Each structure stands twice: as structure tokens, then as C-alpha cells.
């Protein structure tokens, strides 16, 4: 079975904290996608850059590893608005 990152809003570089799409100025969720989807750099979004990595609130503690990504990813630092 091949495992790939989904073409959805949670992997789109237009998504800000709070699920705001900067392209369309609307609130979205992880299941949405559109024709303006732009994949975030894999170097930016993975377990190592997640604030939950190796913490008690990690959704997948036995699978979390550098280079992996799940739907519960959370940034280590908040973006400045």
C-alpha cells in the first residue's frame, strides 16, 4: 500500500492557524481542497516540527517519527498575523 500526503487544506500552504484559507478568506477544514491547492514544503510539516511530538497529547506516539505527518499536526510556534 502506498502512503502519500493528501491533497487537502491541512497540507496547503494557504492555510493559517485557525483553519483560515488566505487565498479565499474562508474557514475550511482538513477534508476540503480546491484548484488553488499549494502543497506545503515537507520540510516544514512533519512530526519534528509538531508541538505534540514526543508529548503526552501526540495522536500516534508509537508511529511519530521525523518525516511523518498526521492530521493532528500542530505548529511549534504560532504564525504572526
Q: What does it look like?
A:
The chain is mostly loops. The protein has 2 domains: 7-40, no CATH class; 42-73, no CATH class. The chain has strands at 15-16, 20-21, 26-27. It starts with 14 loop residues before the first strand and ends in a 54-residue tail after the last strand.
Strand content: 5-15%
The total beta strand count reads 3
Strand arrangement across the biggest beta sheet: 1-2-3
How large is the count of helical segments? 0
Average pLDDT metric: 84
Structural class comes to little secondary structure
Number of domains: 2
Shape: globular
Helix content: under 10%
Main features:
81 residues; little secondary structure; 2 domains
Summarize it:
This protein is mostly loops.
Secondary-structure topology with pairs:
Layout: E1 15-16, E2 20-21, E3 26-27
Antiparallel strand pairs: 1-2, 2-3
